[in-house]
Amino acid sequence: MIWQIIKKQGLILLRNPRQLLLLVGLPIILIAILGTALAGMMDDDTTPAIHVKVGILEHEDEEAQTDRFLEKLEDKGLPEEAMEEIQANREQMTPIQMLKKSVFGSGELKEMVELREVKSAEKEAVMSDDSYDALLEVPENFTYDALAFMFLDEPSQPMLHLFQNEGSDIGFSVVKDVVQQFQEQLTLNTFIGKEGIDSSVIKIDKDAFAGETIPFNQQEPVSAQGYYAIGMVVMNVLFIASTIGSMAFLEKKMYVFDRIILANVSRWIYFAGILISTSLFAFLQLMLIYGFSWLVYGVQWPHLLPFIAVSLAYAIAVGSIGVLLTALSFRINTEAILSLFSIIIVSLLAFIGGSFYPVGDSSAFLQRLGDLTPNGAAMSAYLAVLRGDGISAISHHLYFLVIFAFVAILIAAMSFPKRGLTT
Amino acid sequence: MLELVDLSKKYKQFYAVKNLNMFIEKGEIVGLLGPNGAGKSTAISMLSSLVEPTEGDVRFNNKSVIKKPAPLRKVIGMVPQEVALYDDLTAEENLHFFGRIYRLTGAQLKQRVNEVLEIIGLTDRRKDIVKKFSGGMKRRLNIGAALLHEPEVIIMDEPTVGIDPQSRNYILETVKRLNKEKGMTVLYTSHYMEEVEFLCDRIYIMDKGDLIASGTKDEIKRILSAEKTISIQADRLNDSFISKLKQHPTINRVIAEEKEITIMVAKEINMFSTLIKIAEDAGIELNSVDIKTPTLEDVFLHLTGRALRD
Ligand SMILES: Nc1ncnc2c1ncn2[C@@H]1O[C@H](COP(=O)(O)OP(=O)(O)OP(=O)(O)O)[C@@H](O)[C@H]1O
Ligand SMILES: [Mg+2]
After folding, report:
1. Predicted ipTM?
2. pTM
3. Does residue A162 sit within a domain?
4. Which domain holds residue A237?
């Protein structure tokens, strides 16, 4: 019975080429237009061409620290050749130097991060200077302690101190990531060190933190076409909810709904028919437009499973909107709610959700607000998936969509009127 | 078989139907007659379980169906006043869908769709989209959609409004045939006297939510047995003539139209010479004076003082 309702709904949709064009054709055209026209603007916003200014305050003399460590090794009575080899690799026993040159001073980080040496006396001034994103403080004896921790099994690992400037958000997180990676790298080398002091192992693996593990490099950047494919799809799929709602209201207005009720079909069957058909058509619409974007605009999904998961969750959320609109229009017996939705609410949701431009990038509040709309949550999830994230990284969006759908269905069920005609 | 007991429907402070009592026996064609807004549709919506009555009861085989409408719904076919079809589907697809919701399947469904298309005379248009149908064809399909599950009772709400005489006759003949050949019970709603006179065994007449008359055709017409209706035609009627008629003690009722005046008088009175005299006094020349056999229209006129159709 439910299947009959879905089938009939689909047949009617197919008989309305204009409607289909609006649902599928229009977003495809919009993706092309926005994707090309706004490509420049987009690049500024999403590629990490951010400028990060970091002050570095060293409370030690690294050269002296290294010397001191080498002396200590000699005291321990290391064999002559081993000593020589270590001496030859001395440059690799200056971790701070490496952090400055090989890490911050190479690849993309070099373009992004501006490193400034800071004196002790300037600390206060730098901390309150908004042009700095972060201040990195190297404590006294850091190098010696680090080397001792690594090679001599000394128990305590020295830590670098990183201070965040309150105004900085993304900039700071980049620096924090890098410093964390670096710190972990030092720890990792401990284990190598424990095997005994073999100079061939002493080498700090530069490649390990020369970029690969830094989040910004790892993630695939999102192209303007990719961004707008998602933006337009999540917006346009909302229209299927009002389209099905309008079809349902027409059924009521034309007394076809009465016929269905008189055939002893439970109104809950009808209700389920609306929910499932909206969800199903939403899913098909998603696949169709994404399929097209993949073939023509090259918007390709790195992982299929999370992509399907977001699509399913979003389709169900849209289905719940469809059945909610239907129930409300039946209850108040007017189409006004459907027009209000398709003309005003969709645009509003699309804007907040970031379909037109990445609203959330400018403020964390707007980002959070956007993620509280079904389309915004779906958009954030899709963007993450497009950048290469897996299901666990987007699970909070999926939960939100499912809970949203549940609540909407509940409200719809409660407001769905009991009898066919107005009573 | 079907019974309405003191049935009322109130919208806010206004009664669309008030204290309606009706019954329909198996195999009958019953007419429900009344002008616009009389409450016909409201009454049959309550009868068919679509609208919950404010007061009263609907009984099917002596059981109330207001709380448990399922047994009633199984045996009735409802033809709504509006064309309730999917415009974008073909005649056949529409029938197929409505057959499916009545749980018909497979060969049986196919057979019923074919039979119904035959009954309503749309077999050769089965593949056409309803949107492209004429008004009369839509009306016929509207009836067909209520016939798929072979209902025992068919309730028709003004099934012939706004269509050409040919389609109208076709529908009337179909209703009669369904009743004769299949023994289908029919409740036929209309504001056309002729249709109801042609089709129905018994008739209920409603006005402004009230039942104003009921019975067989003859019983109802007997309401007028004490009176006769005279129709007077003249080219130029004037107010003086009309007011003189109205003031005349033996004339019960005067309904004036542009070129025709209908009056009602007691059966035994001979009005002919009186009318000629009044016309002379008013200075007009009469074209004709006819004594009419009463119609249901006259009954309505008699009961309400208004014509059935405005
Ligand atoms: N849902 C409603 N809410 C308020 N008033 C209503 C409603 N439905 C019907 N009415 C009123 O009840 C009265 C009877 O309406 P109904 O449709 O039953 O008349 P009808 O005899 O079928 O007229 P018609 O010949 O025009 O179809 C009308 O005055 C109408 O305005
Ligand atoms: Mg009506």
Report:
1. 0.81
2. 0.71
3. yes
4. 2-43+223-415
